[in-house]
Amino acid sequence: MLDVFVGAFVGLLVGLAAASLFARSSLAAYRHRLEESSRFRDSLTTDLDALRREAAELKELRVRLEGQLESLRAAHARELDHVRDLADAINAQDGDIQASIINDGTKANAQRLVLSSAKTGRDFDVEIVANDTALQFDTKAIEAAFADPKNSSAYTGTATSSGTYTGTGSKTFIVEVLSAGAAGAATYRVSKDGGISWDDNGGAGYATSTTAAALGAAGEGVQLAFSDSGTLSSGDRFHVDVTSPELRAAQDAVFTLNGIKQTRSSNSISDGIEGVTFDLLKADPAKTLRFSVERDDKLIVDAVKEMVDAYNALVKDIRDKQTFDPETNTGGPFLGDRTANSVISTLRRRSGAPPLASRARFAASRTWAYEPPKAGASRSIPPSSKISSGTIERPSLMF
Prior knowledge:
The chain is α+β, with helices and mostly antiparallel strands. The chain has helices at 2-92, 297-320, 338-351, and strands spanning 97-103, 111-117, 141-142, 146-147, 159-163, 171-179, 187-191, 206-207, 213-214, 222-226, 237-243, 253-257, 260-264, 268-273, 276-279, 324-325, 330-331, 361-362, 368-369, 387-388, 391-392. It has three helices and 21 strands. The strands form seven sheets. Strands 3, 4, 6, 7, 8 and 11 form a six-stranded antiparallel β-sheet that branches. A four-stranded antiparallel β-sheet has the order 18-19-21-20. Strands 5-10-9 form a three-stranded antiparallel β-sheet, with no helix packed on it. The two termini are 63 Å apart.
């Protein structure tokens, strides 16, 4: 009888110890969750305070900038009125001077006061009587060839350039010796783009010559001759500069947009219509081009999809941290945290999410996938939503 009593008493003590241990473990886990929740709440509070301060500062800055902009507009209007008054006063005089105001298309001080005279000046001629020099704006030239300062001293001769340049644009021909030897025996390769690419005649190279010979297969009229003095070493380089001046009178682009004649210094117009850039490729005053501007719905859809994806990802992350695992008797850091629930409620309210199923998702086809409720669960669908072929035909956010 005593043994039975002792056994029962020992069992009771063991049970009490286990219960006490479980209680302490649960209490420690609960305290841990409280600490995690407190830290998360403090972090959110700090972030929200910072966002509020930034929003207030931005609002104040916007008000200040709008005030400055309005002041500038008023000042510009007053200045323009003064210019108009001046032009009217000049034109009111019985004289040969006429005043007009034009818009030159510039962003700053676009309105210009232009004075013109009804009487022109006298014709005159200018004659150069001495030291006249042709400017040679339309003349292509082949400059004298020169050796690279890093060349070997074994070659003491010179390279002489000649010919008539037939290419376009100014450039530099580079001649590099491939195989060493005397002039006439050594071979070379040639580059027309500063050494980026080379023409080496399929690896065989081109033979040097003591008489004027074309530079490779595509020398564009440039010829080169080497004097027979010394030995050309592999890697020696010689340079020939060619020039081809291409001059064109500078002028602004002139066009009429919506009946208003405008000028720009560039053929790319990006400030004529807000959000539209067009390039002027050819001038044809007799031709009128008509075009329409439409809203890009794809950009709007993509922006909404990106917002919804970010919203759903955040909500899922918070919900995952609010779960409880009965096997390990542990809960997520946001379990029972009112701040986390408040964040979701605030996001839902700000985004205008309707009360749809908690597993609504954004689909690429602009429909919303609907997952039926599990057995024993219920889920309400608003009458305004239409279920067809397993989709909810109304955009929604997860919550």
